[in-house]
Write a structure and sequence with these properties.
With about 500 residues, the protein is mainly beta. The chain contains two helices and 23 strands. The strands form two sheets. The chain has a 20-stranded antiparallel beta barrel. Strands 1-23 form a two-stranded antiparallel ribbon. A hairpin with a 7-residue loop joins strand 4 and strand 5. The relative contact order is 0.17.
């Protein structure tokens, strides 16, 4: 199959992962966000540019592999704004990386998710646009290198109507069109380009300023550009849920039913002999989600996460970003097939005046109806320790262990570790000195990296509190009829 020479896989550099949002793949190790976010000293809006050099002694990730120096220029931030006419949010951990000596081409790695809402009629009619850029692993049995990654560019736009028949009740109608573009520099490139047409309706009711319930129904139709290696499908889903949010606790429980309508080529006996004809399959089943975050003491917070959902690899990344409670995430595989994803996860964070400790665990089971040979189980454990050495020096160290078991027999174990020292030279300028190690069995490779990066803050987020205690849960809505943690309604 021909490979596409597009923008390349986006997400390999910012390495090591698992907790607050979603895992990324990278030269530092297999995952990043857990270590990047857990050690982040910002809260609120911030946006900064990163640049630096990182040396790897095994850039090809094979036994006795060659080394190379990576030059990077990146953008890291979490910025948002709510205005009378325009809302936006940008979450980014992305870098353009140049390999100074190896054959790997200069390309972006990481992820970027940007969303904007233009209010045409404030409080009633808005237009939404969203762009998500991430990457998936093509061959789960091979080491993660630029030749084993596929970038996913997921663009969505459409109208939203918001009706409030009473002060406590809100009806939301959405219609969206999405285009998903995939690209890779790998010879194993899998074309999963597709068009998506979706609509959903949500009815929510606030019982108080801290609790609400909702019922939602959705329909999505996915049509692939390459219909030889992919199967078009439709998905219908109905959910009901309940939310509670206060100063110490965030809880969301939902459950419902989903049904897929998938056209699959099957061999059918006809009067002219066996022929491959499209056959409709309609698997369905219960789906549910439980998200709980609880401040268990003035200095610690416990988060629990359990879900069963039917989705595909592209949509799953957005679902992880949008979930109400921070939880673990893991590397996902490149496939256009929908699958049943079951996740169990937990994290615990302790934060004192100068020391923080974060522990995380994730258990994933992926089950494919059409191609069960792609089934896999994944377990991931992470630990991170941070210490403020002085007002301008912060040291952190973290480790991760991941095990994958595949339906086609075989398994793999990955160990990642990183330590770094951050030096805040000036209010907007910082340096980071780091060392990282990664090892994968049964491939038997190991990789060590050392580097230094500099960051410049365009938008400075406020510093996290130095007092004992973690950040509180999102505050409940102050206006009846709005979900806890949501912004106040706009004037009509």
């Amino acid at each position: 199959m021909n490979r596409r020479r597009g923008t390349g896989p986006l997400g390999f550099l910012l390495a090591l992962a698992a907790l607050p949002a979603a895992a990324q793949i990278g030269p530092l190790t297999n995952q990043n966000l857990f270590f990047d976010q857990a050690s982040n000293t910002h809260k609120g809006n911030y946006l900064e540019a990163d640049t630096g050099l990182i040396y790897s002694d095994n850039v090809t990730r094979v036994r006795n592999g060659s080394g190379d120096t990576l030059a990077l220029l990146g953008l890291v931030g979490d910025a948002s704004r709510e205005g009378p006419r325009l809302d936006y949010r940008l979450a980014s951990d992305i870098a353009l990386v140049k390999y100074l000596r190896s054959d790997y081409q200069t390309q972006p790695f990481g992820y970027l998710d940007g969303k904007g809402d233009l209010w045409i009629v404030p409080g009633f009619f808005s237009w939404t646009g969203r762009e998500t850029y991430t990457q998936t692993v093509i061959d789960p049995f091979a080491p993660v290198t630029p030749d084993n990654l596929e970038s996913i560019n997921y663009a969505t736009t459409g109208p939203r109507f918001t009706l409030r028949p009473t002060l406590r009740t809100t009806l939301t109608l959405d219609g969206t069109y999405s285009y998903l573009n995939s690209s890779s520099k790998s010879q194993l490139y899998v074309n999963i380009d597709n068009h998506r047409y979706a609509a959903d309706v949500t009815l929510s009711h606030a019982f108080s300023n801290s609790s609400s319930a909702y019922v939602t129904g959705s329909h999505e139709k996915v049509e692939f550009t390459d219909q030889v290696d992919n199967n078009n499908f439709r998905q219908d889903q109905a959910l009901a849920g309940f939310k509670v949010a206060n100063a110490r606790t965030v809880l969301e429980v939902s459950g419902g039913y989903t049904k897929l309508h998938e056209a699959v080529l099957a061999t059918v006996q006809t009067i002219r002999g066996p022929r491959e004809l499209p056959q409709s399959q309609t698997p369905g089943g219960a789906v549910w989600r439980v998200e709980l975050s609880r401040q268990t003491s003035p200095s610690s917070r416990l988060s629990l996460h359990a879900t069963k959902q039917v989705t595909d690899s592209a949509s799953l990344f957005r679902l992880n970003l949008d979930q109400p409670v921070a939880s673990s995430a893991a590397n996902r595989l490149t496939t256009g097939d929908p699958f049943t994803d079951r996740e169990l996860g937990a994290s615990w964070r302790f934060a004192a005046a100068r020391t923080s400790l974060t522990l995380g665990y994730l258990d994933i089971r992926e089950r494919y109806k059409i191609h069960p040979t792609s089934d896999r189980n994944l377990k991931d454990a992470t630990a991170f320790l941070g210490r403020q050495l002085s007002p301008v020096l912060n040291w952190d160290i973290g480790a991760e262990f991941e095990r994958q078991d595949f339906a086609l027999s075989g398994s793999s174990n990955t160990v990642n570790a990183i330590t770094s020292l951050r030096w805040q030279i000036a209010r907007q300028l910082g340096l980071r000195f780091l060392y990282a190690h990664s090892a994968l069995t049964p491939h038997g490779y190991a990789e060590n990296q050392v580097g230094v990066t500099a960051s410049y803050a365009f938008v400075e987020g406020s510093q996290r509190s130095s007092q004992p205690g973690t950040e509180p849960a999102p505050s409940p809505a102050l206006t009846p009829g709005m979900l806890p943690g949501s912004p106040p309604p706009r004037p009509l």
